[in-house]
């Protein structure tokens, strides 16, 4: 009997708990034992799941009860020329996806951006948020807590920043609803996406509030943050990075390479992305920004649940006075990091290396800004290509040819 079989047997007999296997062997053998158990009980063949290309120990901070890894095909679009505030030059964009035709589309968009001289990109606002909820005795105490927060901003900042050498509190805004007070802390988290950093720092500030006021903390996250849920506050106020990419494309390039006209792209954008989205009550006034955000998040080790916020994007398109096509994509809440979370995993770190943004930037925060700009330029390429495919009526044929 192999070590893994022996461990699997001990789990079956109740001697060891499934999540304690790493206490008895190394991380790879523990994953093997778990695979044996799951394969046995489900009848699934987990050979492919077990054929992963890194030491399981590397993933210990990222996953519990590990049995293996899911492999998602990785492709590249580009290279595309980016003139950003933090990222300048030609870059291949790494995209992990199972949607055929997506990378072809982004690739076509990148080619068009390049033919137009490249895309501009800028981060216009930065700040990861955490909003604990406090319970008070009523509006008199709620107002007093809001006032205390404003009067003690420096002490709150000092408490929060005592937990991190990188994070900086940039704002604490109180929101009052009856006997509930939500304090929306905003942090500059530099190159980290910052959710752990902001949560730990806010926890420290909450201890000060409870020690000094009558309010009691109900939950460290009161959903006004808002993390991993669709929310207007993120679309309006921003969360993570607010980023815009834009380009002006000469009319002949639109006609030659996208088989449509600037006027048709602008009209589709208005009727589909603006009016259609408004009628649907959507927060996303775009065509498929989530496609590029999700594929680049997977490729670079971002928290995939935050694609929800990454879809808070508005695409604009208009015909210029000279008859050319101006297109922009503004993502309000793109939550990205180049340190921490899944960014250290080997293939994800390579994804960051393709963009030249692995690890901490110099100055701190510049690598995460650069990643945000690259993703937004990818989204711009994708919007352009899909809007054009709708204009030339190529969407269904493209997916019939490439996506099945
Ligand atoms: C498929 C194309 C690009 C063909 O477009 P085309 O212009 O007919 O193709 P082409 O053969 O002339 O090639 C043009 C360029 O496309 C790229 N390209 C072309 N083929 C490939 C390939 N195999 N691999 C990589 N790149 C490819 C490549 O850049 C190429 O330039 P080249 O390098 O040859 O000079 C076009 O029809 C297209 O972009 N269609 C739109 C597809 C799309 O955007 N799908 C996105 C997903 S749809 C979805 O998920 C969301 C949705 C639709 O439900 C949201 C909504 O409601 O709107
Ligand atoms: N806790 C929660 O509620 C939630 C957690 N998550 C998870 O949180 C993780 C991401 O949290 P995050 O805080 O980004 O990452 P980590 O928890 O991995 O922490 C990253 C740390 O890296 C250090 N660091 C080193 N160099 C830099 C640099 N250049 N810029 C910024 N920080 C640097 C900082 O340490 P120091 O602070 O000491 O300076 C920072 O706190 C993901 O795994 C995500 O899935 C997601 C949603 C909610």
From TrEMBL:
Belongs to the HMG-CoA reductase family. Signal peptide: none annotated. Keywords: NADP, Oxidoreductase. It comes from Halopenitus malekzadehii. This is 3-hydroxy-3-methylglutaryl coenzyme A reductase. GO terms for biological process: coenzyme A metabolic process; isoprenoid biosynthetic process; sterol biosynthetic process. It comes from the Archaea. GO terms for molecular function: hydroxymethylglutaryl-CoA reductase (NADPH) activity. The keyword Oxidoreductase applies. Its EC number is 1.1.1.34. Pathway: Metabolic intermediate biosynthesis; (R)-mevalonate biosynthesis; (R)-mevalonate from acetyl-CoA: step 3/3. It catalyses: (R)-mevalonate + 2 NADP(+) + CoA = (3S)-3-hydroxy-3-methylglutaryl-CoA + 2 NADPH + 2 H(+).
């Amino acid at each position: 009997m192999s070590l893994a079989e022996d461990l699997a047997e001990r789990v079956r007999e109740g001697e060891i708990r499934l999540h304690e296997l790493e206490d008895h062997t190394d991380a790879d053998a523990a994953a093997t034992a778990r695979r044996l158990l799951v394969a046995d009980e489900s009848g699934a063949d987990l050979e492919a799941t077990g054929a992963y290309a890194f030491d399981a120990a590397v993933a210990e901070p990222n996953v519990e009860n590990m049995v293996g890894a899911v492999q998602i095909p990785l492709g590249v679009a580009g290279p595309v020329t980016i003139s950003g505030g933090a990222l300048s030059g030609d870059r291949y964009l790494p995209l992990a996806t199972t949607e055929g035709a997506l990378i072809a589309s982004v690739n076509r968009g990148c080619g068009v951006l390049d033919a137009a001289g490249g895309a501009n990109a800028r981060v216009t606002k930065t700040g990861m948020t955490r909003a604990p909820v406090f319970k008070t005795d009523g509006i008199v105490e709620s107002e007093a807590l809001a006032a205390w927060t404003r009067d003690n901003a420096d002490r709150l900042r000092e408490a929060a920043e005592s937990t991190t050498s990188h994070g900086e509190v940039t704002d604490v805004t109180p929101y009052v609803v009856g006997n509930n007070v939500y304090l929306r802390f905003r942090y500059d988290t530099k190159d980290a996406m910052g959710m752990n950093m902001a949560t730990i720092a806010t926890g420290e500030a909450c201890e000060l509030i409870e020690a000094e006021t009558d309010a009691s903390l109900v939950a460290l996250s009161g959903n006004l943050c808002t993390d991993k849920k669709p929310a207007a506050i993120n679309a309006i106020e921003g969360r993570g990075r607010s980023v815009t990419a834009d380009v002006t494309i000469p009319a002949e390039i639109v006609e030659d390479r996208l088989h449509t006209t600037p006027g048709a792209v602008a009209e589709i954008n208005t009727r589909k992305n603006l009016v259609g989205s408004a009628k649907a009550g959507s927060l996303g006034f775009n065509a498929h920004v989530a496609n590029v955000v999700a594929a680049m998040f997977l490729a670079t080790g971002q928290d995939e649940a935050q694609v929800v916020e990454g879809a808070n994007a508005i695409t604009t398109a208009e015909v210029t006075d000279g008859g050319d096509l101006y297109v922009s994509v503004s993502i309000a809440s793109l939550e990205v990091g180049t340190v921490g979370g899944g960014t250290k995993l080997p293939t994800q770190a390579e994804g960051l290396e393709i963009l030249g943004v692995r690890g901490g930037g110099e100055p701190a925060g510049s690598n995460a800004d650069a990643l945000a700009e690259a993703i937004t330029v990818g989204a711009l390429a994708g919007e352009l290509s899909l809007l054009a495919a709708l204009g030339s009526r190529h969407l269904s044929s493209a997916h019939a040819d490439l996506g099945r």
